[in-house]
Amino acid sequence: MMEKNKMRLVVIGNGMAGIRTVEELLKMSANEYDITVFGAEPQPNYNRILLSPVLSGEMKFQDTVLNDWSWYQENNITLHVGKRVSKIDRQRCQVETEDGLIAPYDRLLIATGSNPIMLPVPGINLPGVLAYRSIADVQEMLSMTGIGRRAVVIGGGLLGLEAANGLLMRGMQVAVVHLCDWPMERQLDKVGGGLLKEALEKRGMKFYLARQTEAILGETAVAGLRFVDGEEIAADLIVMSAGIRPDIALAKSAGIHCERGIVVSDTMQTFDPKIYSVGECVQHRGQTYGLVAPLFEQAKVAANHLARYGRMRYEGSSVSAKLKVTGIDLFSAGNFNAEPGDEELLLQDSARGVYKKLVLRDNKLRGAVMYGDTVDGPWYFQMMRDGTDITQLREHILFGQMHLGDSGHGGAASVANMPDSTEICGCNGVCKGTIVNAIIEKKLFTIDEVRAHTKASASCGSCTGLVESILANTLGGDYSAKSSKKAICACTESAHQDVPAAIRELGAKTIPELMRALEWKTVDGCHVCRPALNYYLMTAWPGVYQDDSRSRFINERVHANIQKDGTYSVIPRIWGGVTSPAELRAIAEIAERHKVPTVHITGGQRIGLYGISKENLPKMWAELVEAGFVSGHAYGKSLRTVKTCVGSEWCRFGTQDSTGLGIRVEKMTWGSWTPHKFKIAVSGCPRNCAEATIKDFGIVCVDSGYEIHVGGNGGIKVRVTDFLCKVGTEEEVLEYCGAFMQLYREQAHYMDRTAPWIERVGLAYVKQHIVDDATGRAELYVRFLESQRHSQNDPWKERANGIDAHEYTALASIA
Amino acid sequence: MNWIQVGRLEDIPRQGSRVINTSTGEIALFRSVDDRVFALNNRCPHKGGPLSQGIVHGTRVTCPLHSWVIDLETGEAIAPDKGCAQRHEVRVAHGVLFLEVKDQDPGSRCK
Ligand code: SRM
Ligand SMILES: Cc1cc2nc3c(=O)[nH]c(=O)nc-3n(C[C@H](O)[C@H](O)[C@H](O)COP(=O)(O)OP(=O)(O)OC[C@H]3O[C@@H](n4cnc5c(N)ncnc54)[C@H](O)[C@@H]3O)c2cc1C
Ligand code: SF4
Ligand code: FES
Predict the structure, then answer these.
(1) Could you give the strand order of the β-sheet that contains A94-97, starting from the edge strand earlier in sequence?
(2) How does pLDDT run across B21-55, given as a tens digit for each residue?
(3) Which of A179, A310, A424, B58 has the largest count of CB atoms under 10 Å?
(4) pTM value?
(5) Interface probe, candidates B26, B51, B57, chain A, greatest A C-beta count within 10 A
(6) Which of B14, B53, B61, B70 is most worth mutating to test chain A (most A CB atoms within 10 A of its CB)?
(7) H/E element holding A85?
(8) Under a CB-based contact definition with an 8 Å cutoff, are residues A240 and A129 in contact?
């Protein structure tokens, strides 16, 4: 039964973009519309991307179906397949099919995709000349394959090569005819294209390059073709893959404004406000798109407006491309042909068959071509979209992100050639084959979906690049972060950068307020977003905001690190790593009294006491506090340690009092909350025994003063600090340190350490605020000290005195 | 079977949890943001992590050790993870919490 006042949505096109929009709409508001879908193809909605594996025999059509018949039923969608809409009557607000079916609409969505371009040469209509667009095309091709039969593919672009490869795998003799000097010239430069050609020739593909077709030969069926230069070649099957053209005929005939595509605004509306359009048929800000990732972004925006949320805008996409030919690893994105004013960085390793080219302008990445080793594709692509200043990475950038030091998966470089049994995710033990299967069977398109279904890269994240590469290899494009704006988690559309802005604009002071204002989709968020919101509020309103312990990870909630058996560790602060016999004796006695099973000297120059039961924590803290200790915050996204060396007090090389300075710095910074943990070290001379150059803030003493280094990281991805500047006095070190920490606290996304933050914003940005702008620096420093006034209360002392007692005791004991 | 009084609703922080010690192990009581109370064994089906220490959101809790998400209503892990923490019946009457304790071992209520 149709409810009376429900709006009617009609969708023209049962393809990838149209149905994705319906899916997004149903997620947001399931009952807003009575939905009717028209599809010219007789099949349910399927994944067009996977036609190539169907052609090559690596997959069956059934595996490509995204939504089968029952999905339409379950969602009360009226589906008309095999019916082509032939008219849109905008006066009456209805559409009409070729065979006279009429459907009225309140809102219309046009998602007609595009049509393959058929070259206007004689013979084009002969049987045996096929396009490559739909499953029907593939089925027809398959009916004509046969061992030893001859196929010619006209067009050596992405699709043409995939078709050629598929037919090759079916045992045909395959030739590719292409206008340019090398294949895939829109994705590859000459060198990369040459490498690709060689690899395909080795598999038996034949190339006719820089050749133009004059006519297709044959009487009743295809027999061959003739080039403009007169040469003729034989063919039993010809596949036309000379490009696509947005399918706008229907929209145009209804008087909707079209240029190359149907022109839409940032809300995906056509010039008729009742009519939306998404997909390959669309022209947005002058651009048309032929890959799925941008279409899915469009779908999200269109659905948002159809659901009358009215919040999102589509601002265009940058795309990257991948050829889905098993065993061939290539990646390209952006403008990879250097123009005047651009610089090129090149790497060529013929022995390994590796070629990489990066195009730079003003120290920013504009484009990348990679062949043979594409693991870093997603990394380059992200930096391109973020507009990262890469000055500091320049020397190493071609060697890739792993070269910068990545632990946990043995430096794997090429996913295309990996056997299925290769372990990709070292934390959760997930192999390549499992990931590929999940992408196909579970119809996954994003890294988050892969994480949710396989757990790959869901823990420490060091294999994210590899997983993104596998995704790109399987789906033929980059689906990682859709743009630099990435939703915090599934509870929201808001990205990290939206939150501080919203707090400022709305003056929001609590998590529920913020969630309401930003239209959170869940009642009270989840373990990912709540800690983030709590952090942003805390940073925005020091001393005012009431910290929400329910939005803290357990370690921060109870001020101790949880261990695998549910006990906790206790690590007292040892200022600058300097201790005394009295302190050591106190720790020893406490450890003995509480029968502490393990006492460990930590990697941060302190003493860790392990295996403490929760009930015992406050008692033990009381004793430590009594002996003069405060919490070491070894559990927090907060200042951890300030490591020092012995410096000028003892060391024959020491230039300054690194120990004393370290202690001063730690006394100033302890207790501060940061987006992620924050580590500091002070070394007494350039021998750098305190390892200051892999810390978030590192100080290296020299004869004439203090070098300041920032953005270093040990851990999963080792990153050496960037040199920020040199200062002359300890007071300046303190000021720069506080200012830097404050900038990081205010600007970084929650859970970014300084290393990825600096790689995103660029060192120049940090220099500008901390070094060049003395007033700005002073203000940052004042804000830092102000918030420190509210956070340097020892949490252990408070809890030893009874705060949050319920956290440490059972509610009841029953028999 | 009988119902044992174990405390008051306000003893459990909203979006929080408290533990009941029993002779057969710990039971965690959770209070959701809308004041519903759920009880599960305080053991994550993954590697036994104490669920009571996790972040409570909606009617779910995220285990503090490796972030499995457990449905408080059923005790089942959210896909792709598989496993189940045993559920117990709780009631809140006039702000007082009652936990159902069976005379014999009730056996697993997990599917
Ligand atoms: C205790 C300690 C090991 C030890 O016994 O020596 C340690 C223990 C843990 N480290 Fe660490 N790290 C310890 C020094 C380090 C160091 C060395 C250092 O600080 O100089 C590093 C490399 C330097 C760095 O961080 O840049 C280090 C890099 C990590 C990382 C990777 C961070 C990264 O950004 O890649 C993690 C994971 C994380 O934080 O997400 C981690 C996480 C952990 C956690 C918190 C894992 C967890 O979430 O439960 C471990 C907690 C065990 C516990 O209960 O104490 N730990 N960890 C060290 C404590 C130092 C202290 O006195 O506070
Ligand atoms: C062989 C092949 C391989 C590809 N590989 C990749 C890849 O690796 N990565 C990638 O990102 N993209 C790839 N693409 C591109 C991707 O498939 C398209 O970008 C995407 O399908 C476009 O979605 P769409 O909804 O705009 O159009 P479509 O998916 O084509 O859907 C449009 C639908 O509308 C129907 N229709 C048209 N007019 C009417 C009408 N008047 N009435 C009713 N129905 C109508 C059509 O029949 C069609 O079913 C590939 C495409 C092909 C053909
Ligand atoms: S202490 Fe650090 S390196 Fe050691 S197991 Fe734990 S997280 Fe891994
Ligand atoms: S023990 Fe709970 S997630 Fe591992």
Answers:
(1) A85-89, A94-97, A102-104
(2) 998 899 999 999 999 999 999 999 999 999 999 99
(3) A424
(4) 0.71
(5) B57
(6) B53
(7) strand A85-89
(8) yes
